[in-house]
Amino acid sequence: MSPHAPPLHGSLPPEGADLPGGGPAAGRMSAIPDFLPTMPHATAATPVVDIRNLWTVFRTAGVDAVIHKDLNLSIARGELLSIVGGSGSGKTTLLRQMLGLEVPKRGSITVLGRSAEQLTRAGASSRVGMLFQHGALYSAFTVLENIAFPLRELGTLPEDLIRDAVMVKLQMVGLDPAHAHKMPADLSGGMVKRVALARALIMDPPLLLLDEPTAGLDPDRSDAFCDLLRTLHSELGLTVVMVTHDLDTIYAISTRVAVVADKHVIVNAPPKEVIAFDHPFVREFFLGGRGLRAQELLRMHPNTV
After folding, report:
1. Do residues 281 and 119 lie in contact, with contact meaning Cβ atoms separated by under 8 Å?
2. Element at 72 (helix H, strand E)
3. Quick check: pTM over 0.85?
4. What b/e sequence results for 214-233 when a residue is b if at least 16 CB atoms lie within 10 Å of its CB, and e otherwise?
5. Helix or strand or coil: residue 176?
6. 56: closest CA among 70, 45, 67?
7. Minimal CA–CA distance to 84: which of 285, 294, 239, 289?
8. CB of 130 within 8 A of CB of 209?
9. Residues 248-266: tens digit of each pLDDT
10. C-alpha torsion angle, residues 257, 22, 31, 224 (rounded to 10)
11. CA angle 299, 300, 302 (to 5 degrees)
């Protein structure tokens, strides 16, 4: 996904700091029945994202390849939804379509009450935040310049106000203001993710889209980043849509999981219900070796926070 897509809401523990209840990994083990996290359900009747009868077709070498066929997905306000699926199932494509960067062959996508196709570049940045898979920071810009970029693109705000807003967002994602003048090459992988998250939230959007947010992070930094996401989701009332293959992340913070297989969403439900859904991909992904190890880890730590 292009870093030129519109970037995308407290003080939190800094990267690598111990989280409540123990070390960094503790933030992923919630005290919940049957090892799966329990989150508050959204109460708003109107979905934040509503996808109806979606067809996605790519033409390759003169042949049409159908990626999605009559796909339906509704995401309620306040949810933290994880989208999972096999390679080539079109998970990231769905995020791009929600942003209006790609147009489906057929069907409709409504985001915050408007057609995704109608989101203008200026309008989208204040309504939808996006964290790209590898951060997508501009290598020639400092941390401050990367985070400030969407605000400066408006061309209407004074520089001192922009700098103040950047410092607030740095604190929000657990980074010291001293990092503001560093270059992306000087940051660790976890810090890059946090800076990218600060840029995604600089316009205070109500909807945040994440593409593999913990990819490339070691376990401790991945745990800390999940704790950060969970805190922001709760404190800011965000609706979060996340593409991920990380089972620990799914179990730690998801209110619902949407499984894309056979060209459509085969199930969209809380994690415990998804695991019980009878389908070959669900059995392989959630009940294979990796899935069982992730479940056992959460069973072993039922009372940590």
Report:
1. no
2. strand 63-75
3. no
4. bbebeeebbbbbbbbbbbbb
5. coil
6. 67
7. 285
8. yes
9. 889 889 999 999 999 999 9
10. -20
11. 65
Where helices occur in 56-102 by DSSP H, the ranges are 91-99
Dump pLDDT digits (tens) for 66-115: 999 999 999 999 999 999 999 999 999 999 999 888 999 999 999 998 88
Q: How far apart are CA 213 and CA 245, in angstroms?
A: 10
Find where tokens 């996401």 sit: 229
Two tokens, residue 206? 């109500």
- Vertex 203: Cα angle to 200 and 205 (nearest 5): 75
Which pair of structure tokens corresponds to residue 214?
């913990």
Phi, psi torsion values for 201, nearest 5 degrees:
-100, 0
**Which letter does DSSP use for residue 187 in this model?**
S
- Taking a C-beta distance cutoff of 8 angstroms, is the pair 188, 175 a contact? no
Integer-rounded Cα radius of gyration of the chain: 19
Domains of the chain: 24-47+77-104+114-300 (3.40.50.300)
Distance CA 297, CA 285 (A): 16
